[in-house]
Amino acid sequence: DLQRTSIFAESRGSAGRVIPEAELGMEERILSPSDFGFHNALRLRDGCIVFHDFEYAGWDDPAKLVCDFVCQIAVPVPGSFFDRVAGAVAACARGSEKAKKRMRLLLPLYRVKWCCIALNHFLPVDGARKRFAAVDAVKRKREQLAKARRLMDSLDDIDGADILPARPKRR
């Protein structure tokens, strides 16, 4: 829940100083589906794409929507789409330039968040759930660790490189 979110310095030249106690104004928030990504999308017969899974929807920071969309690991979105997605979502909020700057500033933090999500498979509670689902635990942990490594490797790249590149072909 990012109702109390960060306000950023006006330029990256000021090292992106974050003021965590500042609250994002309602006029700067958007109505967000929250868990937004192609992992929650269906393509209809006519080619239209519809999204589902709105259990966490509400008023939120546009930066959260964009950063989660670009960083989520179920169906990777090429990082090269970041600016296009950020611009489209920011246009829905007042202070769109400020929103785009906040999106860019917070992107590395969201990458760390998604590294942690990928590593949930190493937690005992997740392991019990996966055993119940008959998932090969060692294989799944290797896959999740590889995803987390790719996200960590992308921390310094804010200019649109792919966050989760395509998997190498098996020989």
Structural account:
By secondary structure, the chain is mostly helical. Strand 4 (41-43) and strand 5 (49-51) form a beta hairpin. It has five helices and six strands; from the N terminus they run ββββββααααα. The chain is globular, with a radius of gyration of 17 Å. The strands form three sheets. Strands 1-2 form a two-stranded antiparallel ribbon. Strands 3-6 form a two-stranded antiparallel ribbon.
Core attributes:
mainly alpha, 171 residues, two-stranded antiparallel sheet, 6 strands
Q: How would you state the average pLDDT, rounded?
A: 76
Instruction: Note poorly predicted spans.
Output: 1-16, 159-171
Outline: globular
How many alpha or pi helices?
5
Distance between the ends: 43 Å
Order of neighbouring strands in the sheet with most strands = 1-2
**Which range does the strand content fall in?**
5-15%
Kindly state the percentage of residues in helix.
25-40%
Summarize the biggest pleated sheet.
Answer: 2 strands, antiparallel
- Find the structural class using helix and strand composition: mainly alpha
Tell me the total number of β-strands. 6
Radius of gyration: 17 Å
Q: Give me the strand/helix succession.
A: EEEEEEHHHHH
